[in-house]
């Protein structure tokens, strides 16, 4: 089983095979519109504009699993992303990304790229880790997605190369992206 064996639903409700992205470098990211990390949409869009002609695709999967920070409909999400951040990369149906209801794609991604912890030398990593330890300690167990804007980098052959946590800024991924393009 590889990343191309999964089917996903677009934000407009159409079924789509991940096979459509064969030969592309991918960033798969779970997103939310009302999160402290929501401004990452801006840098994800910058990466998309800079590298899409070289074969980068960014696939955004809105999720309402983290403090209900994505409460709107798919249409609301799409409008928010376009109006506030100029997002032109593909967005998908609101998706569960952790626990028993996780979409199989995210179960696969987290198996292939296990959780290695937050960078607690950075303020945002220290803060998110402390928040989860205090409020949702079970979220820190296992390899599941821990919060919004967890990013998975995938090479042109569909191999999961690296996992970037919510606290990792998208532009910090440039060297790894360029190495795969």
From TrEMBL:
InterPro entries (alphabetical): Glutathione_peroxidase, GPX_AS, GPX_CS, Thioredoxin-like_sf
Keyword presence, Zinc: no
> Which residues act catalytically here?
35
Keywords recorded for this protein, A-Z: Oxidoreductase, Peroxidase
Q: Give a GO molecular function annotation for the protein.
A: peroxidase activity
Q: Where are the transmembrane segments?
A: none
Record's keyword annotation contains rRNA-binding: no
One GO process term, biological-process aspect: cellular response to oxidative stress
- UniProt feature coiled coil, ranges: none
Which organism was this protein described from? Paenibacillus endophyticus
Family, per entry: Belongs to the glutathione peroxidase family.
Q: Name one Pfam family in it.
A: GSHPx
Protein name as catalogued: Glutathione peroxidase
Q: Which SUPFAM superfamilies match?
A: Thioredoxin-like
């Amino acid at each position: 089983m590889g990343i191309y064996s999964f089917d996903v639903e677009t934000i407009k409700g159409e079924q789509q095979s991940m096979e459509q992205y064969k030969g592309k470098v991918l960033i798969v990211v779970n997103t939310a519109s009302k999160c402290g990390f929501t401004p990452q949409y801006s840098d994800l869009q910058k990466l998309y504009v800079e590298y899409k002609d070289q074969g980068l695709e960014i696939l955004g999967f809105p999720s309402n699993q983290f403090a209900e920070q994505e409460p709107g409909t798919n249409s609301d999400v799409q409008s928010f992303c376009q109006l506030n951040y100029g997002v032109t990369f593909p967005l998908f149906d609101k998706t569960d990304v952790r626990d028993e209801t996780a979409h199989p794609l995210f179960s696969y991604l987290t198996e292939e790229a296990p959780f290695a912890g937050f960078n607690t030398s950075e303020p945002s990593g220290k803060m998110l880790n402390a928040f989860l330890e205090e409020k949702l300690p079970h979220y820190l167990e296992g390899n599941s997605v821990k919060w919004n804007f967890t990013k998975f980098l995938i090479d042109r052959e569909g191999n999961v190369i690296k996992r970037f946590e919510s606290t990792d800024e998208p532009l910090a991924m440039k060297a790894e992206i360029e190495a795969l393009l």
